[in-house]
């Protein structure tokens, strides 16, 4: 067969959406496929060798494939590659001599309307249908995709048949030219299909008719190439059109997901706010795209049986996961890590993010947005940064309190109680971080609570030491910090019971320390006033009023201290007054005789009643203290000596912590004779032993009075002499 002397006319194909999307390299490559081919004979009449043609065509075909692969692999790609392999085989010499390849069977209806042309010079005309006079390129440009595919399939089938009949045995380059045209038009059709998928979610979108056409083309391709031909090395290799369509959807989803934050520099440069803004834009973009898929794309594909919603959903899920893992690699600091975790768990993970309630989700669950090891690493990094942040926050709280001390500011009174910012700040710090962590996962919530608890347990004694060493120690501040510790203990422990073991001890210790210092201030004021008890001045002066006035003023601060700490402190003041009174009475500086002893008894009885009435009026519940001074007063003034034994019995039963030395001191105050003293001591000995057993086993909590009263040794010596 003579070599053709004609030139293959150019094929112009262009996507109508080129203004919106960047031009697909694949389209540019297949448009140039019909540029002027070199003549089979040179001007000097020397015929080009097959090796030279093979090398030139190989370079051209590889350039076309490279350009297309830069954008996407495209639909129908396996067929094009197969075709290139086939015509290279033809350039190498074709099938083995004597072997005749079977002509592949054409699907029903494909060959209708196609003329049989054997001449290689008519290759370009074969790309035009007879009925409408449009080239394949025009059909693709006008997006008559099914017609373009059917015509290409007919040309492909004819080319296979001619190759099998050894038509190109004398002119292999003619086969190469025609094969290249068919391949590049397939690539152009694939590129147009990919462009449609990309444009589907664009601002202008794609008509439902175009999407339906795309679905029909993919179904037709799968139907035409469902069974590979016997030769197995040519065009009709199965292309798996739906798989390539799904791949195009995945590429489209990746492009859409990467658009938000296109100018993103890095996590270190943008900070937590920049990362939050990027994720907000990403979430909004994905929501809008999936909504468009549900409302517009899925209905268009539904007629062809395409699972568009599931494919798009999985594609976006995979693309978002990839983008999030890239952001996670650069995330730094507690805030950025939390922004990522929170977005993944609460924004993307919210029930309505992927669709409205009731929307059918894929039968097979979507994989986790972040791989378990990535999620675990993010949580671990977050908690590491959180420990340092929590410690820094407690340092700031201490500095804030110190600034209040330096300014000599009295604490505020809210709802009748002293209020320190300490408790509010700590409550907010712990509650906010634990709540934020709980919004992500229960495990992170538990870890955050442990971090906060441990940090608070270390902070409380440090704060206590700093405050007591400062010059700001006063009744209002001590009352405020007693309230603060009590609020933290009851508030945090009731809300987070698991922290009881770690927080109970330091908070109770701090509360007791503040109570102790609060009492010590009052005790230093009252101590000198007790020295007058059982003196000559005591009998003539109203010494008790100034003492009780100081007590009443002090209890004004206690009214602004929360219960039960206020009641505990008031009872301690009550016990201190009774104890110090008795301590002075049992070591008198003057010995009473006759009438003075009677006046002393009456004075002591009046003091006991005044002390009892005052503390009862202040709200003290320590009524068990009322009999102590009164019993001593009755023993001091008792005229019937046999009744002294009865008063001693009452005293021992009421106060089990009383000892023999205390009994001796009371008897010395009464000035009984030696025989009477021995008789009373012998009678009370059994009662004292029983009282000692009660103190060791069942003594009421806090009821300690005589145990803390030290009797001077001189009195014991004098009593012994008596």
From TrEMBL:
Biased composition (Polar residues): 22-32
InterPro entries: EXOC3/Sec6, EXOC3/Sec6_C
MF (Gene Ontology): SNARE binding
GO CC annotations, alphabetized: exocyst
Keyword line: Phosphoprotein
Disordered as annotated region, ranges: 1-48
GO biological process: one example: exocyst localization
Basic and acidic residues composition-biased segments: 34-46
Family affiliation: Belongs to the SEC6 family.
Protein name as it appears in the record: Exocyst complex component 3-like protein 4
Organism expressing this protein natively: Rhinopithecus roxellana (Golden snub-nosed monkey)
Gene: EXOC3L4
């Amino acid at each position: 067969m003579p070599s053709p002397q004609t030139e293959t006319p150019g094929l112009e194909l262009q996507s109508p959406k080129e203004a919106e999307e960047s031009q697909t390299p694949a389209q540019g490559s297949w448009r140039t496929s019909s540029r002027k081919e070199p003549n089979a004979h040179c001007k000097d009449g020397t015929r080009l060798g097959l090796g030279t043609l093979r090398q030139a065509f190989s370079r051209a075909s590889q350039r076309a494939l490279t350009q297309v692969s830069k954008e996407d692999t495209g639909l129908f790609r396996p067929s094009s590659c197969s075709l290139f392999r086939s015509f290279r085989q033809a350039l190498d010499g074709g099938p083995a001599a004597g072997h005749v390849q079977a002509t592949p069977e054409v699907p029903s209806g494909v060959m209708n309307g196609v003329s049989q042309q054997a001449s290689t010079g008519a290759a370009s005309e074969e790309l035009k249908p007879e009925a409408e006079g449009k080239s394949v390129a025009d059909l693709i440009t006008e997006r008559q995709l099914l017609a373009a595919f059917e015509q290409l399939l007919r040309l492909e089938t004819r080319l296979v048949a001619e190759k099998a009949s050894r038509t190109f045995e004398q002119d292999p380059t003619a086969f190469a030219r025609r094969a290249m045209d068919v391949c590049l038009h397939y690539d152009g059709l694939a590129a147009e299909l990919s462009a449609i998928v990309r444009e589907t979610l664009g601002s202008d979108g794609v008509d439902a008719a175009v999407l339906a056409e795309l679905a029909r083309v993919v179904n037709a391709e799968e139907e035409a190439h469902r069974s590979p031909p016997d030769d197995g090395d040519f065009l009709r290799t199965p292309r798996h059109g739906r798989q390539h369509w799904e791949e195009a959807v995945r590429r489209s989803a990746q492009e859409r997901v990467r658009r938000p934050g296109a100018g993103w520099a890095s996590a270190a440069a943008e900070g937590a706010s920049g990362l939050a803004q990027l994720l907000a834009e990403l979430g909004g973009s994905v929501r809008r795209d999936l909504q468009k898929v549900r409302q517009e794309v899925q209905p268009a594909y539904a007629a062809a049986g395409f699972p568009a919603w599931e494919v798009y959903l999985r594609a976006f899920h995979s693309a978002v996961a990839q983008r999030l893992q890239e952001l996670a690699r650069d995330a730094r600091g507690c805030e950025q890590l939390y922004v990522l975790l929170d977005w993944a768990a609460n924004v993307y993970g919210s029930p309505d993010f992927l669709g409205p309630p009731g929307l059918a989700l894929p039968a097979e669950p979507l994989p986790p947005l972040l791989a378990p090891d990535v999620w675990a690493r993010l949580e671990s990094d977050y908690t590491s940064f959180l420990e340092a942040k929590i410690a820094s926050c407690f340092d700031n709280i201490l500095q804030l309190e110190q600034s209040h001390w330096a300014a000599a500011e009295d604490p505020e009174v809210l709802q009748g109680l002293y209020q320190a910012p300490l408790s509010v700040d700590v409550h907010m710090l712990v509650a906010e971080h634990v709540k934020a962590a709980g919004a992500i996962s229960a495990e992170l919530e538990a870890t955050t609570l442990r971090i906060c608890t441990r940090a608070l347990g270390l902070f409380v004694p440090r704060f206590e030491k700093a405050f007591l060493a400062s010059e700001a120690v006063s009744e209002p501040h001590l009352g405020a910090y007693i309230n603060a510790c009590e609020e933290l203990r009851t508030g945090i422990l009731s809300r987070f019971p698991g922290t009881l073991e770690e927080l109970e001890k330091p908070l109770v210790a701090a509360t007791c320390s503040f109570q102790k210092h609060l009492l010590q201030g009052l005790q230093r004021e009252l101590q000198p006033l007790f020295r007058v008890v059982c003196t000559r001045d005591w009998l003539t002066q109203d010494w008790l009023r100034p003492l009780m006035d100081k007590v009443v003023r002090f209890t004004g601060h206690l009214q602004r201290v929360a219960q039960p700490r206020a009641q505990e402190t008031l009872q301690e003041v009550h016990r201190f007054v009774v104890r110090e009174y008795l301590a002075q009475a049992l070591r008198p500086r003057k010995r009473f005789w006759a009438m003075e002893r009677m006046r002393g008894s009456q004075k002591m009885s009046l003091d006991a009643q005044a002390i009892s009435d005052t503390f009862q009026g202040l709200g003290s519940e320590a009524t068990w203290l009322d009999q102590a001074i009164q019993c001593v007063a009755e023993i001091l003034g008792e005229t019937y000596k046999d009744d002294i034994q009865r008063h001693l019995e009452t005293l021992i039963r009421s106060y089990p912590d009383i000892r023999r030395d205390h009994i001796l001191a009371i008897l010395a105050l009464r000035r009984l004779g030696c025989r009477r003293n021995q008789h009373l001591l012998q009678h009370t000995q059994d009662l004292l032993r029983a009282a000692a057993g009660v103190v060791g086993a069942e003594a009421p909590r806090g009821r300690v009075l005589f145990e803390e009263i030290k009797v001077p040794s001189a009195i014991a010596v004098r009593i012994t002499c008596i």
